[in-house]
């Protein structure tokens, strides 16, 4: 695969993830958020299992109890992110959700500072301030205008950052990214369905009403897009991968406008631009600085 082909594969993955925001929003016209989360991740678990089987055949060593515990904790973080994002979409727009969720790229190094005592690259601090400014503009110039859903999506980004941090450590240790995916999907599905059974009504008609969205997000967003990401990143550079994957927010906003008729004012567009700048800066600047130092 050429670098151009790899970048197009990553762009396709980002487009699929962007469409997932629309599917998550429209699904709740027919079904409760926890039923949707549980069913989508149950489908995702089934989709990933064949790939896990192939991965296990090539595994060099068996998993330990500590590995299984780490997989479970990754699933707990994924459930927290999925739940806060899904509930947030009840009171925020697809555009806001897609951009605010993308803040996880800023939160990941901040979590490394707090919990792992790893000093971040200097770009993290100005990027965090830029992202905060973006949220301020996204609210129309007043934090009081942010909805409960917007705040829940910020919490969602924190959960995603925790999930990415934990998953990164586990992948390095076990070299089983697909196995981790299957376990985290299964944990999230079980947890969400347990909450749904207690808190939300359900009927066959509800499931049928949201079946298209459940299958899209379960098969494509969680299954296919993940595989495309793994494949694409093998044949391109980290900075280019970051650019193409970060376009998920742009696809989410564009599809929200095209399919749901969402609009925002000039302040909102400026806020999205600032947040996107912060995301790219955190991803690109450290890698570019590293490459220059190596070339020197």
Q: In words, what does this structure look like?
A:
By secondary structure, the protein is an all-alpha fold. 81% of the residues lie in helices and 0% in strands. It is built from 13 helices and no strands. Helix 3 (65-88) runs antiparallel to helix 7 and helix 5 (104-116) crosses helix 7 (148-174). The protein is globular, with a radius of gyration of 19 Å. It starts with a helix and ends with a helix. The relative contact order is 0.23.
Q: Total helix count?
A: 13
Percentage of helical residues? over 70%
Compressed to H and E, one letter per element, the order equals HHHHHHHHHHHHH
Cα(first) to Cα(last) distance is 29 Å
DSSP, total strands: 0
What kind of assembly state do the chains in view correspond to?
single chain
Radius of gyration: 19 Å
User: What is the 3D form?
Assistant: globular
Structural class by sheet pairing and helices:
mainly alpha
- Rounded mean pLDDT score: 87
- Into which percentage range does the β-strand content fall? under 5%
Largest sheet: none
Low confidence ranges: none
